[in-house]
User: Which sequence fits this backbone?
């Protein structure tokens, strides 16, 4: 009979559980703390609460799929990303908006890059297109996002601001460059190198989510706290 409970040697299953609880804790934290920061930063902190909350629910389902079937919860994984990555792209927009007025085109272009990245990745992982083709389409979307935040309109505006907002934008920029590079590496090692390896794929994606959702959120929260005058703390 197939075991349907979490086994002590199931490293992927355990990582799904641990991260589920971390997402829950982070969700509560961001919502409870949002009013302790300056008004212009509250939307950013709320967004992080939503990102972690959406991920929490998906992690509970992904854990179930993994433990019950031993296969990658691809559909839940991509639905989660499809909802949470655009929210994180909004974050760039709000960080800039917290200090000055910026055109909304920035957000729409980041959204287009996100969709290309995720649709390419999903099609490749779900077997709808060749795995390598999915990778290259996904990479194109990601590179487009990087272009926008480094050299495009968002990057140009960000280079003119100062203080903690500039610091938060810069940090997020490197999260999207370095933190996000873990995902294509997971895809590369889990799907493209020889035999498909769902253990590597899911462990890598899970660790990447921990860093890029909770870690990302905490840094935004820290910047928001720094921008908040002592009288308001
Ligand atoms: C909270 C979830 C996040 C931040 C998810 C991010 C996902 C990526 C950056 C995925 C990127 C991919 C590529 C750049 C190419 C190969 C396919 C993907 C979708 C794994």
Assistant:
């Amino acid at each position: 009979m197939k075991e349907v409970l979490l086994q002590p040697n199931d490293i992927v299953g355990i990582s799904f559980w641990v991260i589920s609880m971390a997402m829950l804790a982070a969700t509560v934290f961001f919502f409870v703390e949002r009013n302790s920061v300056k008004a212009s930063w509250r939307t950013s902190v709320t967004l992080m609460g939503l990102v972690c909350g959406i991920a929490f629910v998906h992690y509970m389902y992904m854990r179930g799929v993994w433990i019950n079937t031993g296969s990658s919860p691809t559909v839940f994984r991509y639905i989660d990303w499809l909802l949470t990555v655009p929210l994180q792209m909004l974050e760039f927009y709000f960080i800039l908006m917290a200090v000055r007025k910026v055109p909304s085109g920035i957000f729409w272009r980041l959204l287009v890059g996100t969709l290309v990245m995720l649709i390419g990745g999903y099609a490749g992982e779900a077997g709808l297109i060749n795995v390598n083709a999915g990778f290259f389409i996904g990479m194109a979307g990601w590179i487009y996002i990087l272009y926008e935040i480094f050299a495009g309109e968002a990057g140009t505006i960000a280079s003119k601001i100062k203080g903690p907002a500039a610091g938060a934008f810069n940090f997020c920029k490197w999260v999207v460059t370095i933190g996000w590079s873990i995902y294509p590496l997971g895809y590369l090692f889990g799907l493209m190198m020889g035999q498909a390896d769902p253990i590597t794929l899911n462990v890598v994606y899970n660790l990447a989510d921990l860093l890029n959702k909770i870690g990302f959120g905490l840094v935004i929260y820290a910047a928001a706290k720094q921008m908040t005058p002592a009288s308001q703390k």
Q: What stands out?
A: Residues 11-232 form a domain with the Rhopdopsin 7-helix transmembrane proteins fold (CATH 1.20.1070.10). The two ends are 57 Å apart (CA to CA). The chain has one domain: 11-232.
